[in-house]
Amino acid sequence: NALYVVVGGGNDMRDARSAAGGTSATRAAAAGLAVNNLATTIGYLASMGAKNILISTLPDLGYTPEAALLGLQSASSDASYWFNSFIPGLMTFGSGLGLNMNLLDMAGLSSAIQLNPGNYGITNTSLPCAGFTYSDLLVPFGVPVTSCDQSAFSDALHPSAYAHSLIADAALKVLGVPEPGSLALFGLAILALAIA
Fold this sequence. Notes:
The protein contains 8 helices and 5 strands; from the N terminus they run E-H-H-E-H-H-H-E-H-E-E-H-H. The protein has a 3-stranded parallel sheet with strand order 1-2-3, sandwiched between helices. It has a two-stranded parallel ribbon with strand order 4-5.
């Protein structure tokens, strides 16, 4: 019943978007290689008896503060697009090995947060949160530094702890695990039935 989480490709796609002379075609090729590496890992896990796999799409790297600071939003989004275009094939590959494949759509979640940050309790989607490099970039222009519990990013690339909690909640939903509050209510209901 063990769950194996196989997530990768972010650094491969950052390298592909930053490559000198890189094009959409070279980013597509890099994405194919990155997803092939994940397939190799999944194949190995299957050969060792794994049954349950969770994989993920790649959040749009064009949304990161890093991409904005480097002026590479378009190339970053393109790299993410190509990586994610290979994920259905990876799901099919794993299923063909008899694995129970689960998909966490981090690309969809990151897009939803960017489009409607208030729905997620986020007020800052473009800069790292307080205490990290570049978090004070716009202070001279009257833009306050935001705390990490209201920011999408902790640094120029990585999600904040709060954003990680949103990712974890999404993963639990994919796996059909009830939220802790729901689990407690379920337990109380069972206890009430036993007492009655």
